[in-house]
């Protein structure tokens, strides 16, 4: 049975009408239950993450200023969110959700967090709807607990995983791979261990051919014993922030490539949902639902 991190906190603490599609966090669990992909017992509500794990990935001064709501107006504006105690609480719950998913993945092969994928959070700052980097926090947890020795981050959100790249730039225990839009946010890219930048309008064939040529060899070279997958659906042609040209079925095939490879190599995989900003919420939910459907079909 799938184990899925979800809390009603995920959909709270932003003003009504904010352009970030918060409603997906409630609609997605409903869709998974409706289709029988998940059962009520599939869902678990994470607790807030312990501060010691935040400090493995983030600068203590930044964390104290974030926790005490002391970020400047300019710093808060870079995150895209109005800063509040509720928002910070939401972030630390999401981070624990990804740690919990990693632990379930070690047991079951796969686990998914309905939120997370906050890959624009750097060691010392937040950007782009990201304040704390859940994947970086969870990777440090596994490594420090000696539950993994080599972690591969597969970041297939349309935006480069710049914060994750910066956090692990000098840590050879974590290999960061980002495949993203070349001309999309962020304007200034960081250097991941492997970056593949795609042109505007890249369609299913271009995207999937590139991924199929890259990922098997990467796994063979890196030899990870754990995978974190940032599965943003802002690669869709319908996405208002995406600039790529993928269909919902192409996005589904993308996820299948990742899951099939992890299953083949018996690599536990923890999935964070990442971005998705199509005008029709149904497009976002359908694309995310495919990720869960595939996880259920391939691993159970």
TrEMBL record:
Domain of life: Bacteria
Family: Belongs to the histone deacetylase family.
Database matches in Gene3D superfamilies: Histone deacetylase domain
PANTHER family: HISTONE DEACETYLASE 12, HISTONE DEACETYLASE HDAC1-RELATED
Native source species: Microscilla marina ATCC 23134
InterPro entries (alphabetical): HDAC_classIV, HDACs, His_deacetylse_dom, His_deacetylse_dom_sf, Ureohydrolase_dom_sf
Protein's GO biological process: epigenetic regulation of gene expression
Protein name: Histone deacetylase superfamily
Signal peptide as annotated in the record: none
